[in-house]
Amino acid sequence: MTGTTTDFSKAVTSFLTDYLPLQRGYSKNTILSYRDTLKLFVLFLTEDKDMKLSKFTMADFSRPLIVEFLEWCRSRGCSVSTTNQRLAALKSFSSFAQIEYIDYIAPLLDVQAVRSKKTEGREISFLSAEQMSKLINYPDANTCSGLRHRTALTLLYDSGCRVQELCDIKLKDINTNTNPTLRLHGKGDKYRTVVIDDKTARLVKEYIIRLRSGAMPDHPLITNRSGKSISRDGIQYIIDKYVSKIHNEDCSFPAHVHCHQFRHSKAMHMLAANINIVYIRDFLGHEDISTTMIYSRADNRLKNEAINALAPKVTDNINLPDWRADSELLSFLNSF
């Protein structure tokens, strides 16, 4: 061990480059999520705690420090669910370190005992079918950039894919012929094939002919302006661009739309079309149907709101007399 390399830094390197990808077989995106948590933890150490990484060791990786880190995350605006994800990543690192650095097993077990906080039921944010149609059809398909943007937005909605799944689509993954389908590379390094609309297939086919005709099957379907695979930030930039324009024209349109709202919107629209929840689970690539059920619960809330909004228009208010003013009834009740 050199003067600038501690057992903590060695543990982080081994955790990210050997344990997660080789021993556990985690996907690139999962590893990046763990890496982001550790980067945030290092930022907390250096900026908030004013510690030097060259002196921080596994002996310093303690329960009180982790609890303090979680509070720091919340003070920066992290939601309860996000903070719980940070904690889960640090627990996984702690579990790995127990084997590599058995001398510190007692304090590392204390880290494992940190409890995550309960989260409230998530409110599903989505666009109506009319709003979504307006957004994905706003880019001018007669221009190269407009065609690329419309194709990206349409696929993001029609396939119900996660934004990273959209970025990872290769030309060989799309079938634009009869019964068009799209093959998606999802979480846990698993693949699923989803059906796409015929109109979406025609749009993608036109996009490939005009902008990707010389590309190889293993090349990315959606690219940035440089011709490289588009990033998640690139997709969000496209969404922000057209959402801003529509909102300026129509203030009732949401001012901000996140990538994942396309997926939420697709699920809610499928529910509204009375599509079976089991098919929606498979379409979205959920491991557990309980994850998919959040859309069903949100749909029930919408139905209740619609019923309550409609009821006063149909049912007249009934003016019932105040029973407390009925002395005979009061005498009868008091006799019990």
What's the overall average pLDDT, rounded? 86
Radius of gyration: 27 Å
- CATH fold topology of the largest domain: hpI Integrase, Chain A
CATH class of the largest domain: Mainly Alpha
List the domain count as a whole number. Answer: 2
Name the assembly state: single chain
Number of E strands: 3
Structure commentary:
The chain is mainly α. It is built from 14 helices and 3 strands. The protein has a 3-stranded antiparallel beta sheet, with no helix packed on it. Helix 1 (7-23) crosses helix 4 (80-100), helix 3 packs antiparallel against helix 4 and helix 11 crosses helix 13. The chain starts with 6 loop residues before the first helix and ends with a helix.
List keywords for this structure.
14 helices, mainly alpha, 336 residues, globular, three-stranded antiparallel beta sheet, 2 domains
Indicate the topology:
Blueprint: H1 7-23, H2 28-48, H3 63-75, H4 80-100, H5 105-112, H6 129-136, H7 144-158, H8 163-167, E1 174-175, E2 181-185, E3 191-195, H9 198-211, H10 232-249, H11 260-272, H12 277-284, H13 289-314, H14 327-334
Concise summary:
The protein is mainly alpha-helical.
